[in-house]
Design goal:
Shape: globular
Number of strands: 28
Strand order of the largest sheet: 6-5-9-3-2-12-15-14
Keywords: Aminopeptidase, Hydrolase, Metal-binding, Metalloprotease, Protease, Zinc
Family: Belongs to the peptidase M1 family.
GO molecular function, one term: metallopeptidase activity
EC number: 3.4.11.14
Structural class: alpha+beta
Number of helices: 26
Distance between the termini: 17 Å
Strand content: 15-25%
InterPro entries: Aminopeptidase_N-like_N (IPR045357), Aminopeptidase_N-like_N_sf (IPR042097), PepN_Ig-like_sf (IPR038438), Peptidase_M1 (IPR001930), Peptidase_M1_dom (IPR014782), Peptidase_M1_pepN (IPR012779), Peptidase_M1_pepN_C (IPR024601), Peptidase_M1_pepN_C_sf (IPR037144)
Bound molecules: (3S)-3-amino-4-(1H-indol-3-yl)butanoic acid, zinc ion
Radius of gyration: 28 Å
Largest sheet: 8 strands, mixed
Helix content: 40-55%
């Protein structure tokens, strides 16, 4: 496999001006005709034109109407090379046949009977021979011809300019996209779909038709997605001054699709990310839909109108767009709770990745398969970098920066430096060193020491950092720009308690000398909601780690009464937002705690965390029962903050109560399950019951399946709940799930529900007998034959193997070695397995 380096970037020798595509979609074969106007970058250039192409059968190639003979070009499994094209502009025409059997979810493929495409990052080369790189921006037309009965709906990017019937029961449609775009934003959909229609009037008074296309029986479940789309369109106008630019915006929903895709005016989504009803989707699903519909829509400006020069710049569009969707969700819900959720995610996935062999900078220096770089580093850490620009410049300065960025670069393919320059130039800002955030891997560690001088009445904060980040500031904030830096505060009557890194203003690990009392004070009083939560989490992590040592020494486990008191105060504080309370009384995840250990011990962490949960439930039983009773849902489901917050608190309390053994509580939890009127309550109660093995668990799981077996999205929840379970020896149950009639390895959602779920259970995936590792290792090879992108996602489960004890290390390493040396392993899987072994 060939490694590609950022430093080797070269401008293309040829640009493409217009691209006219014509698809004849058939059951046996699909024929693609491409007519491309080619313009040399430098007039008179004598260079071969290298076109990418995979799994294609070339039928003919013409230049300026003349068919080329075999000696005029080279053809291999990945390229068509025109050896000596004319020395000026010319028309290139190719006819190709596309491989019909395609389970890779890339290029043109069938999803439950409908044709759809996925071209990012490098899928367009599976559709036709092309310079498949994002700096080739062209205007496209697309003619689609297909059987009218089988494929009544024919969609592509832009505007529909012509349609009609053809002989033999066929019909056609011609789409024209007036905006230049890279080929990764091309899309085609053909199938039996129906649409939910609505309109949005833009800030300049233009009416945009909005259509969400789904299979007919799913249409009722697209209401929330339509609400989300309209909210996103309005928010982007209000907050970023970005108006939608066409008269039509289509969203297509298909079951077999990896995530979601921002194709110009034709976004495509996996069903899970669009379809919702109160009975079948939880609050978390509703919130995720809002975020992802917003995310793909926001790409219209950050990604589509201004795109990436090359795939190393991926975070230019993804980091910025994640930041935009985070802000959108914050503005529509609770800012503090959203921030807590985003930071927890960053710490759980990105920090852990950044501390292991899969660490890479937000802008990687090299890759084998770019598909492997759609990571939490590019997305979530990238968003934190964008957030820092805003922290440094303030809202107005940041807006000036984005305005300048769009003005300068509309219609261009640009780099992270271009974004940086727009921020700097719009504000005359001094951003020295800031670009290091793009090129350094790893999480900086900032150490802070405080001291108070009674006589001088000064308080000083001394910061030192091991990987130098370089924030700066406009407001009253401390800019730590050097390896070591001290800030002194004067005229203070007593030693203050600093609230540092408020709102989590930089993606770093902060080690402070705050005492436990300081932390309890911040937990009770900090005016920054994020830091209030953070104080509780630091205390909880310390508590768990102390008890882990006790557990390892076989000593008795104890729970600090001051901690119980702190949790009780939060629980009973009626001035607090209920969703915040739910977050604040939730203990840090097992992964986060293990990240802090020299040698990760999943059994000890699980045992201690479970002990603390149960002990809290015992000591605060009545308070939890009250919270359940006070916050029961009304009959009608509302997706608004007040109601979501009530449900979050009630269900968190229920989870605690379910850890108890007594009859009364078991009955309470079961009743909550039976009387639930929406999926949030029903599923939370099921999850609470399923924590403990036994008949109640088996019965509830069977009941839930019988209720919902007709709805595959709900069944996926059922699958992942079981596979993620921490009950002892769960690997055997998970193996059985693979044989369950509802499971299908070729379906991405089902696969991730089961495997994604399983690896989330630290005790079972890292079982000391190696059974979890072997199960996942075998599955990787099976999956790799079907879909290398999905398989490489699964291999990454092993990447932190060296964090565990010797026995586990050897077992995990053996699986990686087996994968690397397996016959015919894909580049995707090979790259991740090899890097994990490094
Ligand atoms: N920009 C999209 C990325 C994406 C993707 C990448 C690789 C393989 C399959 C994919 N499906 C979608 C989605 C986004 O981040 O907005
Ligand atoms: Zn994106």
């Amino acid at each position: 496999p060939k490694e590609i380096f950022l430093k080797d970037y070269k401008l293309p020798d040829y640009y493409f001006d217009t691209v006219d595509l014509s698809f004849s979609l058939g059951e046996e074969k699909t024929i693609v005709c491409a007519k491309i106007s080619v313009v040399p970058r430098v007039d008179g250039i004598a260079a071969p034109l290298v076109l990418d192409g995979i799994d294609l059968k070339l039928i003919s190639v013409k230049i300026n109407g003349n068919e080329l003979k075999e000696g005029d070009y080279d053809l291999d499994a990945r390229h068509l090379i025109l050896k000596a094209p004319p020395r000026g502009s010319f028309i290139l025409e190719t006819v190709t046949e596309v491989l019909q059997k395609n389970s890779s979810f890339e290029g043109l493929y069938k999803s439950s009977g409908n044709f759809c495409t996925q071209c990012e990052a490098e899928g367009f080369r599976k559709i036709t021979y092309f310079q498949d790189r994002p700096d080739i921006m062209a205007k496209y037309t697309c003619r689609i011809e297909a059987d009218k009965l089988l494929y009544p709906v024919l969609l592509s990017n832009g505007k529909l300019i012509e349609q009609g019937d053809l002989e033999g029961g066929k019909h056609f449609a011609v789409w024209e996209d007036p905006f230049k775009k890279p080929c990764y934003l091309f899309a085609l959909v053909a199938g039996q779909l129906e649409s939910r229609d609505d309109t949005f009037t833009t800030c300049s008074g233009r009416e945009v038709a909005l259509r969400i296309w789904t299979s007919p029986h799913d249409l009722p479940k697209s209401e929330h997605a339509m609400y989300s789309l309209k909210a996103a369109m309005k928010w982007d106008e209000d907050v970023f001054g970005r108006e939608y630019d066409l008269d039509l915006f289509n969203i297509v929903v298909v079951p077999d699709f990896l995530g979601a895709m921002e194709n110009k005016s034709l976004n495509i989504f996996n069903s899970k990310l669009v379809l919702a009803s109160p009975e079948t989707a939880s609050d978390a699903d509703y919130a995720a839909i809002l975020g992802v519909i917003g995310h793909e829509y926001f790409h219209n400006w950050t990604g589509n109108r201004v795109t990436c020069r090359d795939w190393f710049q991926l975070s230019l569009k993804e980091g910025l767009t994640v930041f935009r969707d985070q802000e959108f969700s914050s503005d529509l819900g609770s800012r503090t709770v959203k921030r807590i959720g985003d930071v927890s995610k960053l710490r759980t996935y990105q920090f852990s990745r950044d501390a292991g062999p899969m660490a890479h900078p937000v802008r990687p220096h090299s890759y084998i398969k770019v598909d492997n770089f759609y990571t939490s580093t590019v997305y979530e850490k990238g968003a934190e970098i964008v957030r820092m620009y805003k922290t440094l410049l303030g809202s107005e300065g940041f807006r000036k920066g984005t305005d300048l960025y769009f003005k300068r670069h509309d219609g261009q393919a640009v780099t992270c430096e271009d974004f940086f320059a727009a921020m700097r130039d719009a504000n005359n800002a001094d951003f020295a060193n800031f670009l290091l955030w793009y090129s350094q891997a790893g999480t900086p560690i900032v150490e802070v020491k405080s001291s108070y001088n009674v006589e001088a009445r000064t308080f000083s904060l001394k910061f030192s950092q091991t990987v130098p980040p370089t924030p700066a500031c406009l407001h009253y904030c401390l800019r730590v720009t050097k390896g070591e830096e001290e800030f002194v505060f004067h005229d203070l009557d007593e030693k203050p308690i600093p609230s540092l890194l408020r709102g989590y203003s930089a993606p770093i690990r902060l080690h402070s000398d705050l005492t436990e009392n300081n932390l309890f004070f911040l937990l009770a009083h900090d005016s920054d909601g994020f830091n209030r939560w953070e104080a509780g989490q630091i205390l909880a992590r310390k508590l768990v780690l102390t008890q882990v040592v006790n557990f390892q020494k076989d000593d008795k486990l104890v729970l600090d009464p001051q901690f119980v008191h702190g949790i009780k105060c939060i629980l009973l504080d009626s001035s607090l937002d209920k969703e915040f309370i739910a977050k604040a009384i939730t203990l840090p995840g097992e992964g986060e705690i293990m990240d802090m250990m020299e040698v990760a011990d999943p059994d000890a962490v699980h045992a201690v965390r479970s002990f603390i949960r149960k002990q809290l439930a015992l000591e605060l039983k009545q308070e939890f029962i009250n919270k359940v009773k006070e916050n029961r849902s009304s009959e009608k489901y509302e997706f608004d903050h007040v109601n979501m917050a009530r449900r979050a608190l009630k269900n968190t309390a229920l989870g605690y109560l379910a850890t108890l053994e007594d009859e009364e509580n078991s009955e309470l939890v079961l009743n909550e399950y039976k009387s639930a009127t929406n999926m949030t309550d029903q599923f939370s109660a099921l999850a609470a019951i399923a924590q403990k093995p036994g008949k109640a668990r088996e019965d509830a799981l069977a009941d839930f399946y019988n209720k919902w077996k007709h709805d595959f999205l709900v069944v996926n929840k059922w699958l992942s709940l079981q596979s993620a379970s921490d009950i002892p020896g769960n690997v055997e149950n998970v193996k059985k799930l693979l044989d369950h009639p509802s499971f299908d390895l070729t379906n991405a959602n089902k696969m991730f529900s089961v495997i994604g779920g399983f690896r989330a259970s630290y005790v079972n995936f890292h079982a000391k007998d190696g059974s979890g590792y072997k199960f996942v290792g075998d599955l990787v090879l099976l999956l790799d034959k079907l879909n290398p992108q999905m398989a490489s996602g699964v291999v990454s489960s092993f990447s932190r193997w060296n964090r565990y004890d010797d026995t586990r290390q050897n077992l995990a390493k053996a699986q990686l070695e087996m994968i690397v040396s397996a016959n015919g392993v894909s580049e995707n899987v090979y790259e991740i397995a090899l890097k994990s072994l490094a």
